Amino acid sequence: MGKEIERKFLLASDAWRSEVRDSVYLVQGYLLRDERSAIRVRIKDSRAELNIKKSLDGIHRLEYEYEIPLVDAREIIEHVALRPLIEKTRHHVIHGGHLWEIDEFADENSGLIIAEIELDDDAEVFDRPAWLGEEVSLDPRYYNSNLSILPYSQW
Asked: Is the pTM of this model over 0.85?
């Protein structure tokens, strides 16, 4: 069983951009989604994966991820996935010894930028960069699965 502890934050400034190590464009489509569970297919560069998530409380999740053939992922996204799709550029930033994934959303979620950090346990201390804004970990509107139901542009 895979478990993750993930915290999500809005950004207070664009200062993080000078710390970006690399970026990747992602497109993902959901096969099933509700307020707490999701099954999705994601394409990242030339790699594709099937991901199953169940939120336990907004911060803790069960997560299972499996690599699948890229051609299958493209067909699933084109013919099976629910609309709208989630498209975003994921920027990787190392700060305070932690990897931050900063998702800059496109299309119907354009204008939304979220920083995420995965932790090993609840008590893990992490340095909060000056560019970090309000925490939104417990707000389900910011789950990618929910952004594919009610996009940011419709808030």
From this structure: yes
| pLDDT digit string (tens) for the chain, length 155 residues | 578 899 999 999 999 999 999 999 999 999 999 878 999 999 999 999 999 999 888 789 999 999 999 999 999 999 999 999 999 999 999 999 999 999 999 999 999 999 999 999 888 999 999 999 999 999 999 999 999 999 999 99
Q: Is 30 among the catalytic positions?
A: yes
The DSSP-derived string for the chain is: --EEEEEEEEES-SGGGGGEEEEEEEEEEEEEE-SSEEEEEEEETTEEEEEEEEESSSSEEEEEEEEE-HHHHHHHHHHTSEEEEEEEEEEEEEETTEEEEEEEE-GGGTT-EEEEEEESSTT------TTEEEE-TT-GGGSHHHHTTS-GGG-
Give me the amino acid identity at 77: I
Out of 30, 64, 66, 152, the active site residue is: 30
